[in-house]
Amino acid sequence: MHEYTSTARVWGLTCPGFPEEVSRARRWTRDILRGSPLADDAELIVSELSANAILHTASGGAGSFHLALAVSPKVVALSVTDEGGTGTAPKVELPSMDAVHGRGLGMVSVTAHRVVVHGSHSGYTVTAELFTDPQPGGHPC
Question: Which residue range or ranges hold the Histidine kinase/HSP90-like ATPase domain (predicted)?
């Protein structure tokens, strides 16, 4: 194989900012990762990140959000990009026991091997990576 040839495959999907699009995002992820041992975790992560985009940013309602899914032999990377409109970046919170919101990104950070947030008030991308070999000393790329 040539040194510049990638074995990664990448898919993208843009969804309107309606709540029913979260199930579409889950189904899309599940279909792409059919047969992968990471499919269930990936579906959970996409569901949470898509719901966050709709509920907490300008992506909800008249907006949209974009999903990207990259699959290589070593890692599955899931990214959700929103339309921003918030004054703060997505972050893991430690809510009180009786809090109704604030646990989702924490759940994503526990499920994924790595979570990275990029962007600004005009739009954030949250990327969660699931390593196929999470053994100590194993390298994802």
Answer: 19-128
